[in-house]
Write a structure and sequence with these properties.
A nine-stranded mixed beta sheet has the order 5-4-1-8-9-10-11-12-13, sandwiched between helices. The chain is built from 17 helices and 19 strands. Helix 2 packs across helix 8, helix 4 packs parallel to helix 5 and helix 9 crosses helix 10. By secondary structure, it is of the alpha/beta class.
């Protein structure tokens, strides 16, 4: 059963402050098709169709926080090279408003991971990187930035990828500074020796990392609990959140309490970056003053979202709310009803994922097969469909004082429950021009009783590179006609 505190906590996440420190890298994705084997060697030939750059490492942790509505603080080190400049520019572009502080290390190569992907499967990964410790002068500068930033946040994440930034000395300085102000420190660990993390609050190893660090098996619930308990006492940790893939997540606290959550993933396409999502969401929940158990619920749901996506991905606040409602409350359709700002964020997220967004509008007072025909045609033109719905006040101005028959909340709920509708947003004006201008859909759908030059917002959409589609109307169906029949008319 979903804790009653969880949805209120979710809504306070954007106000939380989290500091992210660790190894940053540039994730390059090369997408293509394989249609033949090379005549030169028994290897597949990848015909490249698309290239994509994504923030990796601690950059992806910050991206996950940003996707949840937070404004993260990000501190890391890059190489003094062209790829470092490209990585910094990408971070500033993707993390709007974030506090980004990246120092350059003269003797370091910026970390780059390149994944070659066919359909949704990785064919090959190549790494270009430096792993030696950051030089002493840069280390001193980094610590000064960290000690200043830590005073303005409510949680700290150390994202350790073993690339040389998070040395034992730096980890201990950060942990001790955070403990003095009662700020939780969460660590995504690396390697077999967790002594450098001693005194941290929570550590989030996966099953293999937990086995390596504890020297114990981690195949069953009992083995995971025993391995975690050995590390908790050995390194003075408050708790361990063990991520276990298809087996879900297990929280083991120093107090002896244990909680296991089954995975929420429906489909698993790519686990790249899932650990970043877990620690980011966990830290966000704690920074928002939620309990560790509530934060774990959020993290588990967020992980289920990102592994269903291809590549290093994030979960949005809206996706997380929908996933929680669908899983625990059976009310996922209600969370398709957006405010204007929520609708704008959701459309932006869909577009970033390469999805084509459609929009149509109406009063939808009494749903009938004519409406369903229109919506089916609209959905056929796009990957995601948003409905602009007239408020009750707007309907009265358009249809008269006896309308609408159904309240706006009921009309919105009915539309949101339809499978081919992905979002509903109400508007109070006589036309949907303002909401169309805000959302800028890729395709605007209206009935074929209009000409394109008569469709409100057509010029806005077309000027933005979108299209207008006129749907065929099903004859003999209208709400006005139904109302007349109910009133005894012909």
């Amino acid at each position: 059963m979903l804790p009653t505190t969880l949805l209120p906590l979710l809504h306070t996440l954007p106000d939380a402050k989290v500091l992210c420190v660790g190894d940053i890298m540039l994730d390059r994705y090369v997408f293509g098709q394989v249609n033949r084997i090379s005549p030169e060697a028994p290897v597949p030939v990848l015909s490249v169709k698309e290239r994509r750059l994504v923030l990796g490492g601690v950059g992806n942790v910050a991206a996950n926080l940003s996707s949840l509505g937070l404004t993260p603080h990000l501190i890391s080190v890059i190489g003094d090279d062209s790829m470092g400049s490209q990585l910094l520019a990408l971070a500033k572009d993707r993390l709007k408003g974030a506090h980004i502080q990246m120092l350059r290390d003269q003797g370091r190569q910026t970390s780059i991971k390149t994944r070659h992907i066919v359909n949704i499967q990785q064919l090959l990964r190549t790494d270009d990187e430096s792993t030696h410790p950051v030089n002493a002068m840069v280390t001193e500068q980094i610590m000064a930035l960290i000690l200043k930033s830590i005073q303005h946040v409510s949680a700290v994440i150390l994202s350790d990828y073993g690339k040389g930034l998070l040395t034992p000395d730096i980890c201990q300085q950060i942990i001790q500074a955070a403990r003095k102000i009662h700020c939780p420190v969460l660590i995504d660990p690396k390697g077999a020796d967790y002594s450098k993390y001693s005194g941290a609050t929570y550590i989030t190893p996966n099953k293999a990392e937990l086995a390596l660090a504890s020297g114990m098996p981690t195949n069953t619930d009992a083995e995971v609990i025993k391995a975690a308990q050995s590390l908790l006492h050995r390194h003075d940790l408050a708790g361990i959140v063990a991520t276990r893939g298809a087996q879900g997540m297990t929280l083991v606290l120093k107090s002896g309490d244990v909680t296991h959550l089954p995975t929420q993933a429906i489909e698993v396409y790519d686990v790249s970056g899932a650990g970043d999502t877990v620690i980011a969401t966990l830290a966000a929940g704690l920074a928002a003053k939620g309990s560790v158990l509530d934060a774990m619920y959020l993290a588990n749901a967020a992980a289920g979202i990102v592994v269903a996506k291809t590549g290093t991905a994030t979960a949005s606040l809206e996706e997380l709310e929908t996933a929680l409602a669908s899983k625990f409350l059976g009310l996922s359709h209600l969370h398709k009803i957006f405010s204007h700002s929520q609708a704008a964020r959701q459309v932006h997220t869909w577009k970033q994922q390469g999805l084509r967004v459609g929009f149509t509008n109406g009063c939808f007072d009494i749903l009938h097969t004519g409406h369903l025909s229109l919506l089916n045609q609209a959905r056929s033109q796009c990957d995601r469909l948003i409905i602009g719905l007239n408020t009750d006040a707007s309907v009265r101005r358009l249809k008269g004082s006896t309308r609408p028959i159904n309240h706006e909340d009921d009309r919105a709920t009915m539309l949101a429950a339809l499978q081919n509708v992905d979002g509903v947003v109400l508007f109070d004006e006589d036309t949907p021009l303002n909401i169309i201008t805000l959302l800028l859909p890729d395709v605007l759908v209206k009935g074929a009783d209009y000409r394109i030059d008569q469709v409100v917002g057509a010029d806005v959409v077309q000027n933005n590179g979108g299209t207008v589609y006129l749907a065929e109307l099903k004859q003999g169906y209208s709400t006005t006609g139904l109302v007349q029949k109910m009133q005894g008319g012909s």
